[in-house]
Each structure stands twice: as structure tokens, then as C-alpha cells.
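ligand=adenosine-5'-diphosphate
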Amino acid sequence: MYPVLKHLKEPFQYAKPLDGKEAKAKDQMAGGPARSKPRAKNMSGTLKQMWNYLIEYKGKLAAVIIMVLLSSAFSLLGPYLAGTAIDHFLINRDSGFIVFLIGMAIVYVFHSVTMWLQSIWMITISQKTVYRMRVQLFEHLHRLPIPYFSKRQHGELMSRVTNDIENVSASLNSSVIQVFSSMLLLVGTVSVMLSLSPLLTLLTFLVVPIMVLGMKWITKQTGRLFKAQQRNLGDLNGYIEETLSGQRIVKAFSQEQTVIAAFKERNERIRVSGFWAQTISGFIPKLMNALNNLSFAIIAGIGAIFVLNDQITVGTIIIFAEYSRQFTRPLNDLANQWNTLLSAVAGAERVFDVLGEDEERSDEGSAIELGEVKGSVIFDQVTFAYEGRASTINDVSFELTPGETVALVGPTGAGKTTLIQLLCRFYDPSSGSILIDGHDSRMIKRENLRSHMAFVLQDPFLFEGTINENIRYGKLDATDAEVEEAAKLANAHSFITRLKSSYNTVLKPDGSGISQGQKQLLAIARAILANPSILVLDEATSSIDTVTEIKIQEALQRLMQGRTSFVIAHRLNTIQQADQIVVLQDGAIIEKGSHSQLLAHQGFYSSLVNGQLRNGMLNETS
Ligand code: ADP
């Protein structure tokens, strides 16, 4: 794909600020504050997808499972050896207890080693998994069709690549093992306790119902709250990104206070959900601790009576006390890790949601590649509607022979941008067709089609890099000499050489540091280097100083020479020079012809020109 196109969406969007209603609708679609419909939660489906990732590392995974089994066995063995050692010391009064003490030391060393190994191996698996997920997600995002992005905030998507994947990573690193080993320990501990003293085991279990009910309530609350927190965070990220990248518009419309107020509102939502999520989940260890102590008191009290009656030994009470602690700890861990796991599953689900989106429809099998394009373009009865909207373009027909220029004129919302998006196949017509050199554009491979086009937009996209690299974006294998030649033709060479580092001057991501007019000149140089057959020009509405303006006009004349050009025109001068003027209103052509023909026609165009000429600029918002 012609690289500039990857970023086309922004200029299209920023070309006109959203009005309140549109912004709200966009917000809703992006899952912003007004989103009330919770996304269908498919826990088992998500886990299955996760499993497909993990199974790639089955060898390591098996090793982790073995280590978890061993470490659980060692942690069951430890207290047993301690109790037996005590009985040897107190009852048998022989030196046998030393053997058990040494055994205990060995068991605890092995326990640590197995814990360490399982953790290291699991971290390896998790990092490799999230690495793959990140790559897949990023690649997929770049293959999604433009309509997908126009419905979502950038920040919200960014949050999926960063926050959500990070959650998955954190959870895979530790929670998965913890949940697994906690379950094992739980089963193991209860079995050993039952075999030692069923009665004491039952007494220990008295606290279980309180524990289970308490935890159930807490996890239910926190699960909901963590999800809300994550959603609010995604929303805030989206908002920050949007307002920062649209900062000029915010300032230009003096919307700073509104933006700050809306930010505070979102920030407040995070504070509230974060406060409750943390507070309630922080309650878990305290509840567990209290119940632990209660269970210990029961065992110590009742156990003492049993010892006095010679029903059990002191060693058994020690084993019990230790096991009852071991029994509540996995419950505790389960409750803690369950939340992390839930938020990771929610994160993974959001990632899989994006991965499950259909990519830009691949080209038809029979799609062709055009080697050379002369530049004849025919819009033949083109009709188009955005998803869920009434038709935006109605039966539009016009023809351009190679090298001709068409000026698209009409009020905001008339459908000029949409026509361009149809031309470069961000969308395809619902009926009718667009013919390029006689070929239906749907039958031309998208990448090939776009490689024959270049764009010079109102607010040209410049990325962080040198001027040289920014111009070379038009043709990646261009030599320095070619870049300079293009800059000369674009009237950009003289201002570039006046800069301290000339072509090696590094531009900031927002292009600040050079003027709006100079940005335009760079965009023209980039387009000249790309040498397309079809040119799209979205004329700047902002006023640029007269000298630069003349340079831009001159450079544009050179650029448009011999190329078929679509100009979303605002300047009367440009419009007058166009071979054809297409006047659009509500998605339909209301007038079509040359400047003089349309003036003679005395219709919409002539009233526009006569009534609304301001500084040579046609006021298109009327
Ligand atoms: P112009 O460029 O002439 O100002 P557009 O082509 O941008 O007009 O818009 C034409 C109509 O299509 C407008 O009513 C606009 O709200 C609608 N529109 C533009 N983009 C989208 C979109 N991505 N989804 C839905 N409707 C859209």
C-alpha cells in the first residue's frame, strides 16, 4: 500500500471537527461513557483461545505442571515431618527426631527449587505468548478496514495493545500457576487432614461456609468493579489521545475548559471504580486472616482436650495447625488470584474481539494489477451508504480523461470526502461502479490501486523523522538526489536548505517547528516523488502567508500537470482552473461543468460565487 495512505484517516477526520451530536455518537460507538450494553462474556471460549496459544509450548508447560505437583507434595510433606519430629522428641524421647528435622530441611529446599523453576518456566511461556499476541494484534490492526477505525477511539484500541495484553501477561506469569497449585494444595491438605483426624477436620471446616460465602460476595463485587475500572481506563486513554492529537482544534475552538471538564468526569469515574475495587479486594486478606485465627483457636482448644484425653498427640495438633493454615492460604490465594485471572480473561477477550474482526476484505481472486495507469476515471451511477445510515452518495456520475482536473465543490457534509474514500476503496459503492482506465475499481487489487494515487491533504501527516525521510515516504527507494529534485519542484528546497540541518532536520511528530505552508510543500514534494497517475488534493482552508501561498500554488500546478486530479476545492482560483466542476449537495450532483458554463447556468454555483466570495475563498459551509 502506498505508505501515506496508512495515515489518511486522520487528516480526513480532522478536516472537520465533530459537532456535538456526532461526537456523542462516536463516543457511544467507541464504548465511551454512554456504553451501557455489557459485551457478551464468553469465558470458556476465551479460555479455549488462550489455551491454543499456550499449547504451543507444551513441553515447558508439562515441566511446569510437574514442578507444581512436586512443590505441592513438598509443601504437604513439610508439616507432617515437623509434627512427627515433635512426637519423637516428646513421646519416644529418642534422637529419631533429628532425622525428621534433616528431612524437613531437604523438603523445604526442594520446595523452593521447584517453586523457582515453575515460576521461571511459566514467565518464559507467558512472555513468549504475549509477544505473539502483541505482534498478531498489531498486524491485524493494520489489516482492518477503515470503517472499523472510524467507529472507535484510537486510545481505546491502544489500550488493548498495551493494558489488556499486559493484564494477560501478569496473570500468566503468576496467577495461572497459583490457581492450579492452590487447588492441588487444597485437595491434598484436606485428604491428609481427614486421614489424621476426621473430627478435628470437621471442626476446622466450621469456618469454611463463612469463608466461601464471604469470598463469593467479594469476588462478585470486585470482578464487576475491576471490569468497570478497566473500561473507564480505556475510555480515559482514548479521550487523552483524542484531545492531545486534536489539540489545535481544541485550542482553536477555545474548548479547553470543556475538554478539561470532560476529562475530570472520566477521571472521577476511574477514581470511584478504582477506590471500590481496591477497597473491597483489599478486604479479602483481612477476612482470611481473621478466619485463620479462628480456626487455629478451635484446633488449639479442642486439640488440647483430645491430647489430655490421650486421643491424639501434640505432634498431630502441630500438623493440624500448620495444615489448617495451609488450607486457608490456597483459599486466600484462589480468591486473590481469581480477580487477576478474571481481569486477564476480560483483557484477553477484548484482544480476541479485535483479532476476530474481519480484515479488510481480501481482493477478489480474479483481481488484477495495473502496471501503468493513464488516469481515466469514470464514476458511473455511484450510490453509497455508510453502515446503518441513509445513502450518502446518490447516483453520482462524471468522467475524467487522463490529466483532467475535477474540482469538487459543495457544502460540508455534501459527500466530497466520501467520494474520495470510494475512489481509493476505503469503501466500495453499494451500486454503480468506479472505472479506472476502464477497469472496475473493485477488480483492481487495493494495494495496486492505491499505489497509483497520491494525496496532499489539508493537514499533511508528518511523522517523527528527518525531512529527507518524510519526503522519501512517497517512494521508499528514492535516492537523495531524487528527494532533492522533488523538493525543488515542490518549491520546498529553499526553505529546507535554510534550516540548520537542511534535509536532516528532524521533524516532531505533530510537525511543529515548520509552518503549515511548509508542511504543505513537503506533502507536495512527497507526492511528486511518488509520481502517481491520480492525485487527490484536499485544499487547505487555513490562510497561509501570501509568499508561501504563491509557492504552493506554483508547486501544485507542477504536481497536477499531466495527472488526473481530484481537488476538494475551496479557492476560487483553483476551481476556475479546473477542467470540470462538480457541485454536490446531499450526496448528489446538482451542477456539473466548467466555471464559465456554471456561471452562465445561473444556478447554485453562480450564486455561491457571486454571493460568497471572500478573499478569493469560496465559503463552503453555506
Ligand atoms: P464533505 O467531505 O463534503 O464535508 P463527507 O463525505 O465527509 O462530506 O460526509 C458526507 C456525509 O456522510 C455526512 O452526512 C457525514 O456525516 C456522513 N459520514 C461521513 N463519514 C462517515 C462515517 N465514517 N460513518 C457514517 N457517516 C459518515
